[in-house]
Amino acid sequence: MQGLLLCLLFSLGGKSKSHRYELNHKKTYEYKYVGTITIGHDMPDLAESGVKLLCNVQIEGVSPQTFLLQVSNVAFQEQNGVPGNSGFTSSPKMSKKLSDEITKPFVFEYMNGRVGDIKAATEVSDTVVNIVRGILGFFQVTIKSTQRVYELEESGIHGLCQSNYIAEEDEHEQTLTLHRVVDVTNCRQKAAVTVGLALASENEPSKQRGDNIVAMVKYMYTVKSTSDGGLITMSRAEEKHHLSTLNVKGGNSKLLAIKEITLLKVLDSEGTHTIGPVQSRGNIIYKFGNELKQIPIVMMNLENPVPKIVDLIKRLAETNTNKELSGASTDVIEVFQLMRSASLEDLETLWRQLSDNQEHRRWFLDCVVEVDDERVIKFLERRFQNGDVTANEATQALLLALNHLKSELGTVDRSKGFLHMPFVKSNQLLWNTAVLSYGSLVYRLCEKIQPCPVTAVQPLLDIANNGLMNKNEEAMVLALKALGNAGHPSGLKTVIKFLPGISANAVDLPTRVISTAVDSLRHLARRDPHSVQDIALSLFVQKTLPAEVRMLACMILFKTRPPVALVSTISAVLLEETDLQFASFSYSLIKSLSNSRTPDNHHLSTACNIATKILAPKLERLSYFTSMAWHTDWFSDTFLAGVTNELYMLKNAADSMPTTIIGKGKFHIIGRIIEMLELGVSTDGIKTLLSQIGSADILTHNYHFYSVNNLLNIQLADWQSFPNSKPLFSGYARVYGQEVFFSDVNKEVLQQVFKAIDLNEGKDESPLRKFLKGLEEGALWHWTKPYLAYETRFIQATCLGLPVEISKYYLALTAVTANVKAQITPPVQQHVMELFTSEVSLETNGHISITKDIFAFHGINTELFQFGSELKCKANVNIPWKFMLNMNGREKKFELDISPYTDVTEVFSFTSDVYAVSRNIAEPSFAKRTPIIPITAESLDVPVTEGSQDFHLTSQFCAESSKYGTAICMEAQARRAHFFDEYPLSCLAGYSHVAIQLKPVETKRPIEKIQIQISAGPTKTLLNQIVALVRKLIKRNSEVIINPVVVMKALALSDAAKPEGFTAAVYSLPAAQKDNIQFIVSEVGEDANWKMCTETSVDLKQSMTQTVNTFVLNQVHFRWGAECQSYELTVNVARIQEPSSKPTLSAKVNWGNLPMYMNNFGKSLEELLPFYSYLIGLHSQPDANPDHEFSAKVFNALPNTGDIIIKTPKVGDTDLR
Q1: CB–CB of 898/1009 below 8 Å?
Q2: Which keywords does the record carry (predicted)?
C-alpha cells in the first residue's frame, strides 16, 4: 500500500501530499467509450426509451498543458419498448449526422487533474460540445495519496458540487480503486435552468419536508501505477434520477445514465497535429444552448421556417373554420417552435404574406407572441409605429408577448419603449395592459437577478410620481397597480408617498388611491417582510383611516407571516378597537388562519390560535353582516400538495352592501405556491350614486321594462353631479399573482353604452343599427384563439453531457363559428329595447369547439434527438347547433325549434396516456411512440402478476329517449398497471378515455323537429285549463286567483302523428302570511296520464318583539304517477325561535306509497345509519318512531356546541357532544 501511494505521489505530481491524476503530453491514450441513458418506470412489462452512444476516444498531448481529443467510430443507437422484448437498435443516419460534428478536433487544457478551457470549431453545436464534456468528465478527478476517505467541493459537468471519495489499494495488482459520489442536488453553481416558474414562489417550509426529484451520481475508477504516474485503465459512472409528480416514495419516472471508458492502448505521440481554427467553448461545466429553444414535445427540421409557418397557418385557418379543433394542437405547437427559430426578417416576411387575410392574420398574431425574446418586441414596435394593427389586436398581442417574454436585462430595457409610444397611450385598455404587463416583466426579472436594478422599475416610479404631482387619480391607481405587479424593493419609497401617517409629506388622497397603495405591497410582503410589517402595522393602528384601508393593511400584515410577538400586539389593538367592521374582519382572518395546515403558515397558525383564544370573548359573536375574511386550506404531507381558498368581504358601518369583495385560489405543489386566480370587485361608487338619487325614488316609480331612458332621467341633477372620475364599480383579475386586467365603469362609460344602443345616435352610422341590419341580411362570424397558458421547464445536466428535462405545457384552443339570420317585425326604430315588443325570428347554425391539451415530458431534449416519458392529456368539447328561435315579446312567448341529431356527435371527450417516445432530427418522420402499458392481446385478458394489480376496463352506458329520438351515451376505457405498495402514483401511468356522445335513436315515427315553448303570460284557454286542473287537485270548487304563470313545453313534432313530450306549468297562489307555488309536469301523447304535482308552501309568522315566537315553515309536497295519484312524499322544514332561546332547525319527511327503488334505498340507509353514527360520534338506540317518517332536529345546547337528533322508523340517534 505504502509503495503504491509513494509511487503515485512522486510520479503524478511531485511534492504535495495531495496529488492529482495527470496526462503525459508525450503520450497518446486511446479509450473505448460507451454512454447509455434510459428513462422509464423501471417496472416489469412497462415500456421505456433510451439512447446509447459508442465511440473511440483518442487523447494526445500538444503541449504540457494542452491536449487534443478526437472521436472516431461513432455509433448512435435507440431503444423504445419493453426491456427484454426490444433492445437498442442502430440508427445509421443519426450516427452519421452526429459523427459529422463530434469527429472534429477538440482542444482542452489539463493540469493537476482539472479540465480547463475547451475549444472546438464554430460549426460544432453546443450539444456536441456538451457530449465531449461528458467524456472529459472522467478526467476531472482528485486523488489524495495520504487519505482513504476525503471530501471536497470541485467543479464538474453538473456545476460546483460536493464530492466524497473512498480509496482502496490492491498491492498485488499495483492498482488503486477510487469510489466517488457527487451530490448533484445541492451544488453551489448548479448547471440547471428553470423556465416559467418565476410566478410560482418557492415555499421553503414545504421543500424542507421533501422534494419530487432525487438525483445521485457515483463514479468508480481503476488507476494503475506506471512509471509516468497514475493511469486510468477503466472508469464507470452511474447517475440515477427519481421523479414524481408529487412527493411520493419510489418515484414515478426514473432516469438511469451509465457511461464507461476502457483503456485500449497507450502510444508515444508523433508530435504533429493538424487542428484547424477553434474557439473557446467554456470549461467542464455544462453550457446551455439550443436546447432552450427546443420544445421537447416536437422534433422537426427548423431550416427555412417561413414557408413551413405559412403552410401550417393556412392549414389551421382552413381546417378550423368548419371543423372541430381536436387535431390542431400539434400543428399549433409546431408553429410555436418554428416561430422561435425564425429571425426578425422572417417575421416581417410572414406579416407581409399573411396580414391581408383576416383568418391568417389572426392566427399569426396569436402565435407570434410565443417568440420569447427581443425579436417579438421589435416586431410589435414596428406594427405599433406603423399603425398596422388595431388597438384590440395590439392589446391581446402585448398582453401575451410581455407576459411570456424572457425576463432579461435586455428585454426589460427594450420593453420600456412601449410606455412612451403615442399609439399605446391612445387607447386606455391598451395603455393599462402595457403598464401592468411591464410591471409583471420586472417582477420576473427580480426573481432572477438580485439585487434587482432600479433602472428596471424607474418608468413605473416616474408614472407614479407624475400622477401624484398632477393629482391624477387614474394615473396614480394604474402606476400603483403596476408597482404591485413588479414587487421591486426600490418601489417601496415611492409607495410610501401615498400612505398617510407613513410619508413625511402627507398628501390628501382619495381612499381608492390609498387602498391601491396598500395592496401594492403584496409581493414586497414576501421579498421584504420586515419593512412591510412596519408599514402595515402603522396603518393597522391608525383609527382615523377609513376601515377599508385598515382591512387591506391587515391582509398585507398577515401576508408577511408575523411572529407570535407581533400577533400578540395585533390582538391587544383589537381588544381596544371600536370599529366593529374592522374588528370583525381582523378577527375572522385571524380565526381562519388559526386552522391553516399549509407548511408556509405552520408558525403563523400557532400564533393565530393563541390570538383567537384571547379575542374570542369579545369578538366571537359578531354577525356575518359585518366585514368578514375566510381562509380555508388543505394540505397533504404524503403528497406535499394542497389548495388554499380565500374570500374577503369588506364593508363600512353605514351600509350592508359590501364595498369590496375579493376571492382567490392557490395551489401548493412541488415546494412552490401558485396563485392561480384572484378576482376583485368594488361597488362603492354605486352606493354613493344610490344615496344621491335615493333608492325610494326608484322603487316607487312604475317604469316600463324597456324604458331605460327613464332610469337615466331619475333625479337627473344628481346623476349629472356624480363625478366622472369616480367609478361606479371597479373590477380586476389576477393570474399567477399578477394583475392582468382592471376596469373602472364610471358615468361616462355608461353614457357611451347607452349611446351605443340608441338607434337615433348617428342614425345610419349607429353601431347597433349596423349590427341589426347585418343580422337581417345574414351574418357569418368565425373566431379562433390558440393560447399557451402554461409552459414550465426544468433542465439540468447529466454525467453524459445530455440535458434531462422536466417540462409541462398547457395549450387551449377555442373556435366559434356561427351563421345567423334574423327577421324583426316591426323593425326597431328608436331603441334596442323595442326588440322585446317585436316578433323576432332567428335562424342559426354553427359550432363551438374547445380543445385543451396538457403535455408533460421527462427525458433528454436536444435539437438532435429527444427521448423519454411523455404524458398527453386531451379534453375536447364540441357543440354543434342548428335551431330557429321565434320570440313574441308583447305576448311573452318564446318558441325554439331544434333539429334532431341524425349522426353520432361526440360532445365531450377526455383522453390520457403516457408514452415512451424517441425522435431524432435525421429521421423526424420515423418517431417512435409506445404506450407505457403496451396494447397487446395479453393485456386485454387482464393479466395479474405478483405485486401488481393490472387491469383493462371498458364500460358504456346510454340513456335513451324514444320520444325525442335522441340518446346520450357515455363510454369509458382504462388500462392500468398498479404497484400501489411500492409506487403509489404508478396508477397514473396508463390509458384513460371518457367520452359523451349524442346518438340518434330509432322511433316509431319520424321526428322532424323538437320544439320548446315558453309562455310567460297564459292565454285564456290555457288559463281555463290550469284553473280546472288546480280545482281538481286541491279538491275544492272555490274561485282560484292565479298570478303570472310560466308554461313550458318540450315536444317532438311530426307531421304524421300528434306531438309527444312533456309540458310544465308554474304558478302562484298567494295568501296572507303564506306563499304557495304550484309546479305541475305532465306527459303529452296518446293515452299519456303520467303527472308530477309539486306544491311548495312558505308559512311566515314573524314578530320583531321578544314576547312572540319567530316561526318559519317551508313545506314541499310531491305527488307523481298516474294523474299524480301513485306516489306521495312530503318534506317539512321549520325554524323556530323561542323567546330568550337559541334557534332550532327541524326537518321532517313523511311518505306514503313509494317506488320500489326508493324503498330499497331508504332501508339500506337506515341499516347503515347506526354504523356511520358511531363513526362520527353519535349515540344510537332502538326506538319506536312513527312509520313512514324521517326527522332531524338541530339546536344549540351550549355555546359553540350543538345537539342533533335524527329519527328513523327503527332508530333514534342523538349527538352527545
Answers
A1: yes
A2: Disulfide bond, Glycoprotein, Phosphoprotein, Signal, Storage protein
Q: What is the 8-class DSSP label of residue 1210?
A: S
Helix (H) and strand (E) counts in the chain: 32, 44
The predicted structure's pLDDT at residue 174: 82
Q: What is the CA radius of gyration of the chain?
A: 37
- Which is more confident, 1087 or 916? 916
- Quick count: other Cβ atoms within 10 Å of Cβ 799? 26
In sequence order, what DSSP letters do the residues of 1091-1135 get, joined into one string?
A: EEEEEEEEEEE--SSSSS-EEEEEEEEEEEEETT-SEEEEEEEEE
Quick count: other Cβ atoms within 10 Å of Cβ 1092?
17
3-class secondary-structure state, position 366: helix
* Interatomic CA distance for residues 143 and 178, integer angstroms: 8
What residue type is assigned to position 1073 of the chain?
A: Q
Which has more confidence, 311 or 750? 311
Distances (CA, A) of 1 to 19, 149, 167, 235, 1046: 16, 15, 11, 21, 101
Q: Considering the entire predicted model, what is its pTM?
A: 0.87
Give the separation between CA 1025 and CA 505, rounded to whole angstroms: 77
- Report, as an integer, the average pLDDT of 890-896: 88
420: left (phi over 0), alpha (psi -120 to 50) or beta: alpha
Cell of residue 544, nine digits: 382615523
How far apart CA 150 and CA 166 sit, in angstroms, is: 7
The mean pLDDT of 743-765, rounded to a whole number, is 74
Q: Are 247 and 212 in contact (CB under 8 A)?
A: yes
Distance CA 770, CA 764 (A): 7
- Cell for 3? 509503495
Q: What is the pLDDT of residues 1159-1203, one digit of tens each?
A: 888 888 877 777 777 666 666 676 767 888 888 888 766 555 567
Indicate the burial class of 849 (C-beta count within 10 angstroms; 0-12, 13-18, 19 or more). Answer: buried
Residue for grid cell 331603441: 831
The answer, yes or no, to whether residue 707 has pLDDT greater than 90, is no
Please name which of 771, 81, 725, 141 lies closest in space to residue 467, comparing C-alpha atoms: 725
Question: What are the cell numbers at 159?
Answer: 456545476
Q: How many residues does the chain have?
A: 1217
**DSSP code string of 994-1030:** EEEEEEE---SS---EEEEEEESS--HHHHHHHHHHH
* CA separation for the pair 801, 156 (Å, rounded): 11
Q: What is d(CA 994, CA 1167) in angstroms, rounded to the nearest whole number?
A: 35
The closest of 859, 791, 811, 858 to 194, measured between CA atoms, is 791
- By CB atoms closer than 10 A (0-12, 13-18, 19+), residue 1045 is middle
Enter the DSSP assignment of 453: P
Helix axes 473-486, 454-470, angle to 10 degrees: 160
Q: Using the predicted structure, report yes or no on whether residue 85 has a pLDDT greater than 50.
A: yes
Report how far residue 1048's alpha carbon sits from residue 1052's, in angstroms, rounded to the nearest whole number: 14
Output the 3-class SS for 1151-1197.
ECCCCHHHHHHHHHHHHHHHHHHHHCCEEEEECCCCCCEEEEEEEEC
- Looking at residue 1027, its pLDDT comes to 55
DSSP state of 73: E
Q: With cut-offs at 50, 70 and 90, classify the pLDDT of residue 1140.
A: low
